[in-house]
Design a protein that fits this description.
The complex is a heterodimer of chains A (about 160) and B (about 775).
Chain A (H helix, E strand, L loop, with lengths): L1 E6 L2 E6 L6 H7 L18 E4 L2 E4 L12 E3 L12 H8 L9 H14 L5 H7 L11 H15 L7
Parallel strand pairs in A: 1-5
Antiparallel strand pairs in A: 1-2, 3-4, 3-5
Chain B lengths: L15 H5 L15 E7 L5 E7 L1 H5 L3 E5 L30 E2 L5 E7 L2 H8 L3 E6 L36 E9 L2 H7 L2 E9 L11 E6 L5 E5 L4 H11 L7 E4 L16 H11 L3 E4 L2 H7 L2 E2 L2 E9 L5 E13 L5 H10 L11 E9 L5 E2 L6 H19 L3 H8 L8 H5 L16 H12 L1 H4 L5 E2 L2 E11 L9 E8 L5 E5 L8 H13 L6 E5 L16 H28 L6 E4 L2 E4 L4 E4 H11 L6 E7 L7 E11 L5 E11 L6 H20 L29 E6 L22 H13 L10 H10 L6
Parallel strand pairs in B: 1-12, 10-11, 13-17, 15-16, 21-22, 28-29
Antiparallel strand pairs in B: 1-5, 2-4, 2-6, 3-5, 7-16, 8-14, 9-10, 9-12, 14-15, 18-19, 19-27, 20-21, 20-26, 23-24, 24-25, 27-28
Classes of the chains: A alpha+beta (about 160), B alpha+beta (about 775).
Amino acid sequence: MDGLFIINGMQHRLDFKSDERLLFTLRKHGYTEVKNGCLEGECGACLILLDDKPVNSCQVFTASAVEKDIKTVKGIGNLYEPHIIQKAFVDAGAVQCGFCTPGMVLATYALLQKNPKPSEPEIKNALDGNLCRCTGYVKIIEAVKLAAQMIGKGGDRNV
Amino acid sequence: MSDYTIIGKSEKKIDSLSLATGACQFTDDFELKEPLYLAQLYSPHAHAEILNIDDSEARKLPGVVDVFHYQNVKPVLHTTAGQGFPEPSPYDSVLFDMKMRFIGDRVAMVAAEDQKIANNALKLIKVEYKILEPLFDPEKAMDKNAPKLHGTDRFTPIGATYDSLKNLAAEVEIEFGDLKKGEAEADFIIDKIYHAHYGSHCAQEPHAAISYFDEMGRLVIVCTTQVPFHVRRIVSKVCEFPLSKIRVIKPRIGGGFGGKQEVLLEPLAALVTIKLKRPAKIVLSRKEVFQNSRTRHPVRTRLRTGVKNNGDITFLEMDSLLNSGAYGTHALTVLSNCGAKVLPLFNKIENMRFLGRSVYTNLPVGGAYRGYGATQGYFALNQQLDMIARKLDVDLPEFIKKNHIQVGETSKIFEALGEGKEGVVQYINSCKLDECIDIGAREIGWYEKREKKLTNGDKVKGVGMMVAMQGSGIPLVDMASAYMKMNDDGSFNLDIGATDIGTGSDTVLAQIAAEVLSIDLEKIIVLSSDTDRTPFDVGAYASSTTYVSGGAVKKCAEKIRDQILDVAAEIMKTDRNNLELADGKVHDQKNNKCISLSDVAVYSLYTKNQFQIQAGASQFVEQSPPPFIAQFAEVEVDKKTGKVDLIKFVSVVDCGQAINPKLAEGQIDGATVNGICYALTEEYKFSENGNLLTKQFRDYKIWTAADIPEIKTIVVESHEKTGPFGAKSVGEIGINGPMPAIANAIYDAVDVRLFKAPFTPARVYREMQKTGCQHY
């Protein structure tokens, strides 16, 4: 099968098998920033934004995402033009191994879009679907606070 | 405070922006041209012999290229432990065995054109088993009539105690002083048994390996490893392929924690590429990581201590029984560390005995895991200290301060017990444990809360604490090396064997080089862990990287500095002694002149007496200075349900000079939360026939951000004179504290002693019922 997808703002026609999960379709076509951590929908490493909603792409059939808007971590910023949230993760020391980071960054993006000034419990709840074994979440939570602050101060790039 | 320019600064981790933007590549992210995908078939029986394998149906499945098992792969005895050579672990493994030793042992492997075909082909392999009686209880492993796991052909290359007829993978015994005398002198003896349980590392990136032949016919392996140089050596041995034709590359690694100090998948991928001349890829599923890779060794510790009423500890006897599971990987060294990393902390005890045994059982395989035996040992020791202090009716922090090792002191254990062999005499150069204890006590509100049983309805609060030390590398064993060269613009390549698995070691090591050369961090270009292009390093384990690899980098950078000053003296026509490096320039103090590093580089490369400013250096260590930590927990226990809520957890660590405080805090934060989950929720549960039941994140609970209470990490700096810029290690130590600190806090709240973790509501409730704390 194949279908049209809007990935990080660009239209792409991708081929996929009828029972394929979106995670594999994306990775197969080079979107390896979407990580495969558990295939159980538990770890959040494969989190993407599907029509602006955070979803674990390992739990989504590709066929159900045809013609939808998909955002990966590369869609919000890159090495040359990073998003404020990505910068905040770097500044806060929230990136250790970095395997969970794409999912964490996107979960943060989804949170701050809805709620630009989240409380600590709201931050923790928003990240509830993303596992990290390196940081104990301490500096990740700080990074989200920092990102909210930076955006609040009218950082160079708003969510 | 120091007057360093980059040491002690929380520089941004050099790969963090690339990771945060998804640009960095992990093993599974590399594109291979038409690779073969591999899948493994595992034993459904805990103990069995394979009578026959019929792979004919699997081979007929379109897309299947080959099937591997004991009938067609030469058995080469080895250990999967990624340790230095000769490995202190027994050679008890082959890639494909005829005997199955746990549910999840490898039976066969399929190579196919896609992953689905490979997985489907597994179901077509017919295996005939002779089922054998399983052995699950480590206490019975050495019984005469116990089933035997390994044949007498298996051995240990270092000649350590090993006896397959007793299912004994390793044994260690040391004693000094006079235990009997200590017993006689004691006013009371506390004799308790503690159980530390299985645990999974849960690195977010599952294990993976890819292999291919490059354009020169050399075998390239890209893999999720903590030990690239050991991978090269062990693959060469197991696959009988020349080491010179193997290149191992470590890309970004999604966490290790010891789980990737194991050479599990690399020989499998290599085997396929060598035989079929095609790229191969193998990636474990999460279930495979839980069941088929490596775990924390469960340890039963019996701890006997004699105490005088004046507080003197007259003797200590620790008897550790380590359940190694089906194979003996790290069985000797983790066992040794149950004592070696724990007992020196209380060096005033004159009569001491440590007896350790590692035994085989038909259960999942233990291995290296952050803490490495110390976690298991400290669980016992710190609860025992709590008991002693309570019995003496003295303040626990003060009791510990009187008894722990101090600067200038040594312990007989250092010399008697190393990692798998005798240790090294060692005196403590730096120790700010007293300060750590005081700060931690203040931070948790020890004197306001201890023994107050602050109650709110059914809930009671309590506080507990613990102390620990670890090491910094393995003395007289570990070696690391570094190479540097200078470029035209005054930048430097730093090539290091050291293995950054997410810890930030690339950054920390670059900071060390930058400090020596007085330049910005951006001027250091780091390449690490490529066996063709970087010099040797044992790898990321034993809390060694900052201390050992850091020492190599410092030496190397100092050689570079000397060459720079020589060239600058030639350019500036002055005496070298007038020159010094600062702010990225060479300054002539006497004549008040300066030139840039780029001037030096260009001169040396293009102008006169041309040569490459370059250097290499190795660091071999004779000491393993311990970092120290005090950790405090405040809990609230619901007497109605047994549920333990962690309210606050404080860690105060002396890691010498923190090269990068933010990264050091991150190591402690992560280790601490890992330890907290191990104490409260993580558990391997088995069916009666030895099948692991908790092999998904929904069954094996590790915490998310939503579960996190207040976590406070404080770094207390000291100066370790043998370390680079005064640094010691920080990677492992934080994981030791949560289990005993929380157990002690639970006792403080509800008078229930927990000798076994995790402290689930059911377990805490049951224990409350037993000890009469039944208010309901």
